């Protein structure tokens, strides 16, 4: 009885899929501080030009370089599982599948783009990559990728996580990455904050500022910055997940998919699985595509589609996205990767088009779902991933109530072995659910009131 | 360029391999306290009879039950990797392969026997399994297996690890296992020790006594005890590793193997990879089979082949094995799984026969090797596994010096994501190498001086 399908090496996808080519409405450009579109060359101090070209391309298929494939082969293709244990426990007629991205050396989907970005940087002559990390998943994935390619990696890690979660830092150091607590004394931005707030716990926004500052101020031009989600090229690199999954579903004998599910923080693991299916939906296939987020950080289900900054300090270009406002401070839920204020522009536009439905879920339901999954499927899930499991269980229960043999697939984006303190709090009954109060959301949305507005266009009509 | 090979589902091994059938000399029996051989039925209060039968069988091939295969399929076949990155870094003409057992949900090879043992217990009508665990790898693997099969699992965890390493305990709890610190108030043995030493840090010996006591004192007869290494049936269940690896090497185009390497604590992951190759060696193939151990706990390279107890308290049957004496207290090295005083009887007998060569390695060399492996192959290794990597690097360097195109395979028995504090100490320069002083070894060996002696027979001649 088959529970798991791989692909042969000759079946592995050799191109990434770019949803921008198929969206009914063209993507709106990022804007500079003057409100005018950002031209690619303006980003050149931050990213290498080959990545910038990928960021703006509208080509449907982008070749994966042979050497990037060699690196991806180290853990790809990842297995697609039939969740027979979970199905049985739920008594559902649905057939549930999940893509196991936890088998990568860093334990999540993040290395899919990390190795690609590191490779493009190296091709462009870059010797050193800077980035920021919150809980540490992205910083460790980039350190891993840089180790394989012989690049230096410098990670600014939000101080409170740096102090509380030494294990992710140790992963980075094992791969040779340099990890410093942010705010640090190594940048102007960091020193300025420390002068005012010596005890600052840091934030992702500060860490981004530090990482970008270090990249752009390297006079030799050999340093660039890297981002682990949100941007078009990052989502592009992740589509190998969904492209593999489609071939694997065929091997399971499935001819159609009814529901596609992923959790979405910046949007990259969700897009990675979902976009190749969204392409089918655009072409006429009927399916529900569900992007899950915490009820405490409901940017897709309750936020605005607006132009907003990517960082708290407001130094990045303005991106058209679902946002709670760049000054939004999320409550301390355990899914650190889902606490970002904004959503990837490609995912946001697909929501506007009606191709993707957001769904907000409370964290206690997520932990309960992850526990059922651990006991029936055997894998311990990251708190972010537990949101996708919770939505899958909701859909499987619905299929039972409707008596329908639905096919559900979700992205098991990473394991939770570095996140067991959240489980501990759950066992002790110390976790709480937070519904974001309307007035708090309106307060942080007020910060973007005077920014330029994107056109809101649905299914190709402006 | 292929770096990784799986197997198709129809190629997965469907039988385990039993080295006992092929050893030139028959295995010597376990002995009871009276010095007479232990009869199978004497073990019935501890293990279910179907497992006892497997423990004593001399059948060469043992069928893997279909339902056990279904469980193993959840993560098997595990990939066999060609270590191209490591080879390049070493500039060796050797071709290095490793079997990645870290992809299992518990992160090591342990679930291979855990699911089999849980299944046989369930078949026999057992509802509840007790066991002990040191650092927690075995306890978490058995909790995982019991969750999948709907059995209760009770783990006695050495108190010092219970207090210092909460993450393994949290894995057990996530899978529904009950984990208590040992010595506990739940058994006579535990209460007796706590009465004398209320602050006892515990030991594996005490934990074994507690787990066995709980199993044999359940009046309903529905509880049994389970061991994660050392015994014949445990090693048998692990041979799926080597059987898969042989098929995978063929897919890589390899016709012969020159060196087979594994780390050995109780012996199960080593035997799992090595025994199917040892069968070829018995049949005439030339190869080196190397069992690696810490220089601080050198039972194979410096200990005696003798009858000894499996536990510190001396309550188990006497087993013929390489030992440092059951009262041996190993120094606090970081490879917790390699700190056991004895070696599996099957591995020990194969050493006596000259089929396997032990090799002792210091921990700092192991950490250096693991670091090189992380930077070139991308995977972070368990401290136990790092011993196999160190020996592999030694052999690859030797091949370079000799200018020989050797084929080397080792068992990458588990990932080190739960063991990063050891890496931290290594980075800080806080680790030390311990060479076991001769007088300490002689002291603990004195404890077995008056026990019965095994016959020392080589290559079939007594």
What do we call the CATH topology of the domain at 4-8 and 63-107 and 232-448 in chain A?
Rossmann fold
In angstroms, what separates the terminal alpha carbons of chain A? 50 Å
| Fraction of helical residues of chain A | 25-40%
CATH class descriptor of the domain at 4-8 and 63-107 and 232-448 in chain A = Alpha Beta
Mean pLDDT of chain A: 94
Number of strands of chain A: 15
Going across the biggest sheet of chain A, name each strand in turn.
1-4-5-15-10-11-14
Low-pLDDT segments of chain A: none
Shape of chain A: globular
Give me the CATH architecture of the domain at 4-8 and 63-107 and 232-448 in chain A, please: 3-Layer(aba) Sandwich
Radius of gyration of chain A over all CA atoms, rounded: 21 Å
Strand portion of chain A: 15-25%
Summarize the largest interface: chains and residue counts.
A-B, 41 and 41 residues
| Biggest pleated-sheet summary of chain A | 7 strands, mixed
Task: Provide key terms for this protein.
462 residues; alpha/beta; Rossmann fold; seven-stranded mixed beta sheet; 15 strands; 39% helix; 16% strand
């Amino acid at each position: 009885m088959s529970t798991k399908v791989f692909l042969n090496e000759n079946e592995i996808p050799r191109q990434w899929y770019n949803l921008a080519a198929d969206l009914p409405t063209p993507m709106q450009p990022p804007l500079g501080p003057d409100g005018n579109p950002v031209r690619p060359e303006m980003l050149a101090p931050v990213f290498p030009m080959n990545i910038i070209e990928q960021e703006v391309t509208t080509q449907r298929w982008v070749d994966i370089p042979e050497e990037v494939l060699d690196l991806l082969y180290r853990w790809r293709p990842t297995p697609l599982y039939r969740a027979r244990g979970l199905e049985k426990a739920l008594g559902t007629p649905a057939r549930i599948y999940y893509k196991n991205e936890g088998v990568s050396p860093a334990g999540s989907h993040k290395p899919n783009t990390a190795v690609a970005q590191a490779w493009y940087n190296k091709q462009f002559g870059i010797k050193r990559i800077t980035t920021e990390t919150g809980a540490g998943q992205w910083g460790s994935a980039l350190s891993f990728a840089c180790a394989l390619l012989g690049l230096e990696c410098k990670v600014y890690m939000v101080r409170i996580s740096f102090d509380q979660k030494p294990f992710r830092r140790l992963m980075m150091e094992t791969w040779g990455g340099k990890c410093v607590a942010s705010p640090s004394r190594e940048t102007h931005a960091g020193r300025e904050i420390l002068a005012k707030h010596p005890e600052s716990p840091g934030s992702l926004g500060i860490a981004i500022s530090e990482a970008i500052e270090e990249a752009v101020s390297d006079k030799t031009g050999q340093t660039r910055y890297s981002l682990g989600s949100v941007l078009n090229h990052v989502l592009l690199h992740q589509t190998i997940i969904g492209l593999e999954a489609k071939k694997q579903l065929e091997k399971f004998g499935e001819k159609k998919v009814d529901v596609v599910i992923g959790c979405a923080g910046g949007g990259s693991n969700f897009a990675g699985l979902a976009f190749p299916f969204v392409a089918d939906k655009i072409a006429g296939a009927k399916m529900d595509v569900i992007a899950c987020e915490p009820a405490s950080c409901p940017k897709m289900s309750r936020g605005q589609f607006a132009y907003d900054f990517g960082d708290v300090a407001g130094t990045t270009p303005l991106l058209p996205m679902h946002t709670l406002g760049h000054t939004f401070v999320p409550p301390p839920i355990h899914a650190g990767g889902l606490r970002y204020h904004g959503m990837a522009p490609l995912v946001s536009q697909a929501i506007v088009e009606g191709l993707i439905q957001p769904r907000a879920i409370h964290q206690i339901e997520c932990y309960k779902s992850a526990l059922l999954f651990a006991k029936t499927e055997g894998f311990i899930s990251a708190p972010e991933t537990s949101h996708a499991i919770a939505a899958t269980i909701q859909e499987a229960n619905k299929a039972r109530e409707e008596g329908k043999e639905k096919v559900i697939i979700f992205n098991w984006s990473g394991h939770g072995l570095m996140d067991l303190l959240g489980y501990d709090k759950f066992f002790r009954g110390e976790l709480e659910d937070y519904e974001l109060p309307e007035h708090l959301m309106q307060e942080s949305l007020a910060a973007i009131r005077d920014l330029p507005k994107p056109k809101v266009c649905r299914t190709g009509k402006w």
